[in-house]
Amino acid sequence: MSHILTLRPGSREFGIAPGIMPAGPRNAITDVPGVKVGHVTLSSRDINTGVTAIIPQPGDLFGDKLTAAVEVINGFGKSAGLVQVAELGTLETPILLTNTFGVGTCSNALIRWAISQRPDIGRETSTVNPVVCECNDGVLSDIQAMAVTEQDAMRAIEAAGQDVAEGSVGAGTGMIAFGFKGGIGTASRQILLQGSAHVLGALVLANFGKAGDLVLPDGRRPDPRIMAEAEKGSIIVVLATDLPLDHRQLARVCRRAGAGIARLGAFYGNGSGDIVLGFTTRNRVPHHSKADVCQLERMADRRMDDAFRAACEATQEAILNAMCAATAVEGRNGATRPLLSDWLRDGHNTGTSEPL
């Protein structure tokens, strides 16, 4: 089993920079202050899977929750914790991404992690809501092996840092997108609000899209040269920001991530689980509040277009980064998928470095 992380080239190395908004310094979800990402990659024979952990903020997440929201574009998925996030508008654990059959294991790991931080959980106070999202990597990995362990999930949390490895790492190890090798990707956009710089970042687990449907920002349509199957994959998008948004506004921002997915040619097929989870680090919600009324900061709705565009552009680029950074994986029964980076290098690269 390999746990080594490598930083891979993204779409900008091929002159592909979607949109018009400026990226953050890392062009990653970790441009949002306090956000960290960690991976554990499992790759051995028929096993190509793993765990990706997103730590939304340091400190006591259960006692000082984050404002959060969910958008379910197409609900063919087996995630955990989203119902409570949608109902209460709060996030109280790290977010774990993994394969479909690893959701229960990762949920247990998050519960144990939360109890280690707050021993009163489930006894002196309420239970905790672990948030785990998944995609099916069963083509390139033996999903029935149930290879992901609680220890893997814990190690992903412990490995979290500001540098984000992309491509065939962590939960993205066995993923496929538009007939090419998919995986983990990230990107960010900067927004100026009342003279202060803010960031909206996206991290995706890209495992969706029908082969042959991919459309690059300049109109090119890469051909993976494999038989086009039904659109039955999934994509998980996690959006993080330090903008002062309430739960309703966050839900609206999450909805716009769907525009970034669709710009690349996806149509949200019947068998696709397309889910967006967003949180802001700005408005915290105490678990125990002594006050009857809690105050929060709220961005003016007339400025929401900037957040909408940022969600669209960051999601689109994060998907492209996942595909461009992906490395070759030979999976179960010798299954493989071609690399978008090879297609771009094989005489298809425009060579431009300007945003498209």
From TrEMBL:
<dbReference type="GO" id="GO:0004177">
    <property type="term" value="F:aminopeptidase activity"/>
</dbReference>
<comment type="similarity">
    <text>Belongs to the peptidase S58 family.</text>
</comment>
<dbReference type="InterPro" id="IPR016117">
    <property type="entry name" value="ArgJ-like_dom_sf"/>
</dbReference>
<dbReference type="InterPro" id="IPR005321">
    <property type="entry name" value="Peptidase_S58_DmpA"/>
</dbReference>
<dbReference type="Pfam" id="PF03576">
    <property type="entry name" value="Peptidase_S58"/>
</dbReference>
<protein>
    <submittedName>
        <fullName>Uncharacterized protein</fullName>
    </submittedName>
</protein>
